[in-house]
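Quick start: what a row looks like.
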Amino acid sequence: MPPTLPLATAELLHRGSVIPAHPLALHADRTLDERRQRALTRYYVAAGAGGVAVGVHTTQFAVRDHGLLRAVLELAAQEAGQAVGDRPFLRIAGVCGPVRQAVQETHTARELGYDAVLVSPAGLPEADLDALLDRSAAIGEVLPVIGFYLQEAVGGRYLPRTYWRRLADQESTVAVKAAPFDRYRTLELVQGIAASDRGDDVALYTGNDDTIVADLLTPYHVSGPAGPVVRHFTGGLLGHWAVWTRSAVRLLDDIHAARAGDQAARRRALARLAGDTDANAAVYDVRGGFAGCIAGVHEVLRRQDLFTGVWCLDPAEGLSPGQAEEIARVHTAYPWLREEDVFVAEGLPRWLS
């Protein structure tokens, strides 16, 4: 039998939660800033996030090349363990690379107390669908698997609905993250998961940072093995939620209430739809073809004094021309972003202690 999630953690995953993709805090010399790395995890816990994903794209895949993967996984696990108390909290590790590397990284995550792994398809252009599925099955012998549809602009590839059905068929698959930044491909993912006999056992999480509210509010009327079914994205595992995280928690609460019939909550969520997309365009550097997406996340954290700079592991990676001004513009435009600054300012002395 493949490993399973503890009951309370599995219930949290399926109920739906805010899961920030954890960034990497660096000093100016591009060494790990352990104090601020810890502070960032404390911020997510205090903001009400239901988990963190570490070692993923927002953490920078290059942490592996710099020998930092284990360190950042360990720091987040330690801080989360101390901060959350008795409440369930999802510890998700990103794994990538060929089978041997991915399985080895999964063993490291299990050793450090992680609950599941987000399996990236990036960097394996020669692998066909069967090879990708075999890799997921091998990983799933160590920890539960969260499938990942990554957009092509940052290393993803097209994955048809048959792939998602077969992935859902694997007993180790507990969730999938849809982040192709493409409505057609997102729908195909939902259709593929729903077509599996295990479809109901696989939680749907949005990673489409450009259309978060729409993903979470949309009822997907699709076909299951026994006939028509309705599926929902219940939560998000997002780089965009690495910033303004308490605001994201409030948004998801409203969306859950809206789906239960609360019309005032629905109106509040819809009022965020365009603004959140606008904010994401600035942070993720849509004008620059996503070149500054990691640095954009860092810039928001720098403005809040959680980070001291926007440094990335790659010295050539930084903010695009005009991106800082765009981030300043959306910050001024949307009150829920400015409200987060007050929360961070109040908590920062504790988180940095």
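That is the whole record. The chain has a mean pLDDT of 96. Strands lie at 18-20, 51-54, 90-95, 116-119, 145-150, 173-179, 203-206, 220-224, 227-231, 235-238.
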